[in-house]
Amino acid sequence: MHNLIEKMFMTEFKNPALESRHDSAVINLEGKKLAFTTDSYVVSPLFFPGGDIGSLAIHGTINDLCMSGAKPQYISAGFIIEEGLPMETLWKIVQSMQEAAKNAEVEIVTGDTKVVDKGKGDGVFINTAGIGIIEHGLTINPSSVKQGDVIILSGDIGRHGIAIMAQREGLEFETTIESDSAPLNGIVQNLLNAGIEIHCMRDLTRGGLASALVEIAEASNHNINIIESEIPVREDVKGACEMLGFDPLYVANEGRLIVILPEKDADKAISAMKKSEYGHEAKIIGKVTSENKGKNLYGFVTMKSRIGAARIVDMLSGEQLPRIC
Amino acid sequence: MHNLIEKMFMTEFKNPALESRHDSAVINLEGKKLAFTTDSYVVSPLFFPGGDIGSLAIHGTINDLCMSGAKPQYISAGFIIEEGLPMETLWKIVQSMQEAAKNAEVEIVTGDTKVVDKGKGDGVFINTAGIGIIEHGLTINPSSVKQGDVIILSGDIGRHGIAIMAQREGLEFETTIESDSAPLNGIVQNLLNAGIEIHCMRDLTRGGLASALVEIAEASNHNINIIESEIPVREDVKGACEMLGFDPLYVANEGRLIVILPEKDADKAISAMKKSEYGHEAKIIGKVTSENKGKNLYGFVTMKSRIGAARIVDMLSGEQLPRIC
């Protein structure tokens, strides 16, 4: 259904900003470059280990904005509230949003609330739209990816999806798996301040690390090779994935990104990323391995597994977890 | 519930942009003034005479932006789709949005779709956020309202609310009452181009003409007097209101505005408004009648009725129509 809808929207709304297919639209306002984005949040349950729908709605929109290198500044918040939602619940969510906004140094400047009858919603849905300023002169886009570039991942993967699933299904592990939900604008700002020539960035949301890499490989006409043993996955997440039949490569994250940049800048970039609270574990997980070899050979992601074999990493086929964001 | 929620948000998110309590936030981006706004649309039914949730979502956000005199430019669209919504329905809505955007010369540049399980939504909810540029140097705000100013209304009132109610309740009238849903940016741009010193503007949405006037009277510390016989209400709307027990003064509109400006500019303003398709019926309906006379005397709206009596127009007490936008 999602693909169908996307095609519908791309056909109907087509314009240069939309067609860039970035997480956010880049718009030109009389010489100033702005990023503009929107996301609705329908996560279920509303509260989960490591976050809630409110902080998630702030982090998600911040992250979409900063993937184009924008500095997120202003956020709008639209609430669709199901009649009967306890005011205390709403209050907790609103406070969580405000705290998340404050921590990430963005302002919620405009909002709206609508109430729908009981049974016509699900507690609360939140839409956030965001505006950021683009001050750099880089082209942060799959088209800038070059052979020899390194792929840097900001931290361990798979926690958000598993935290939601565990909560939803009432699963208990020895330790609580907390969502990685976090704002990534600090990491991006550190990279830009360090003068890193960022070629491409992606935050890892639905479809996980694998989907982000495949999208970039396809869009850039390059091949990407990653090394399984370099990709951090916490033991408890690994265990939960095995139990639930998920591959951590495809599980959603809400506070992780990959950055693709020239190998010569790698050390500088990693230390810049590590200065941020959410980039402590930044490391190289792979490389852009080959030039475009023609129409039939672009866009493959391969992974060298722990036992040394190479496998092709494909887009996730079949159902993704519903309502994880 | 709505008042409670508003108080909660104002307390938690407080900042200068939000506290202006305009329909849109005015933000300063390195010397450029922008308007930024958001609204979710949960109207039921999705299609009604004169419009649908798609065109409404575009018009509503355009209108919120231009009430500060901004020129609406970019729109985001977030869809929350209930599983099982026929794709054809969605397609019709998307096309209607695109057509509304094109007619009003705004671009939909970024979007998002989420799908929720059947029974957890209601067909589709749409959030639109919008960005506009403010190029004028006026302070369009209740604080600019002055004694002697005229109140100009752009057209007949009450049609949107009645169109929705009639559709929802299966009422049939001799003629179909169509919603007045329309973009108001053309009218506003004409006023600005004509060099009119606009003091205040309000689009008439929930709570209708009465609520907009009372809000301005209260916020400006002035009294406002309107003349019932000058307020256009179509005969069929009047009849439907009588039947349903509504007062047209309080019924929602989605394509009407009031403009408050100096009497000397009134003729020029009316002819500027009439140049727009949606301002043909623009006329003076009242005046700002008195200076603030101290704490206890501010903020009254009075209406001279057809039989010559004066009545106080108050905020709507009690329930408003649910889910009309």
Secondary-structure-derived class of chain A: alpha+beta
Identify the CATH architecture of the largest domain in chain A: Alpha-Beta Complex
| Name of the CATH first level of the largest domain in chain A | Alpha Beta
Biggest chain pair contact, residues each? A-B, 65 and 64 residues
For this entry, what is the oligomeric state of its chains? homodimer
Element order of chain A: H for helix, E for strand: HHEEEEHEHEEEHHEHEHEHEEE
Tally the helices of chain A: what do you get?
9
The general outline of chain A is: globular
CATH topology of the largest domain in chain A: Phosphoribosyl-aminoimidazole Synthetase, Chain A, domain 2
